Amino acid sequence: MTQADTPDAAASRPWKRPQSVLVLICTRGGDVLLLERTRPHGFWQSVTGSLQWGETAKSAACRELFEETGLRAGAHLRDLHRGERFPIVPPWRERYAPGVRCNREHWFVFELGGRRTIRLDPAEHRQYRWLPAAVAARRATSWTNRKLIRQWIAGQARR
User: Does position 1 have pLDDT exceeding 50, yes or no?
Assistant: First the structure.
């Protein structure tokens, strides 16, 4: 950790870090967990969240997984060492430093033996659904989320 990444230095930064995680939660049986955000209504996604200053992508994935579902990552969280870069939509840009226009998303998969009961944060999500992967790929609102689900489906077919 550099001096610029110490907790004191991180706390003084007024801007959001333009890096995030996307954690696909799935079962060995082929189901995918999607969460519906409280706002906007009808926005379905996997676990997502921004990295805090000084935080690694894996730490952020573990933190977000627990905050959004109550699940603890343990050894089942797999870093895919892939992701996407995407433009930050104009309504959200004010959260980032001037001139920041793109976000770097890091992808993870959390595979479970079967479906689990999920503990949602009602301030963030309205409901959750376990869906067959192909249905989840169609329902996910974000193009990066759809892409990750489809890549996971393709990988399952090769197993």
Answer: no
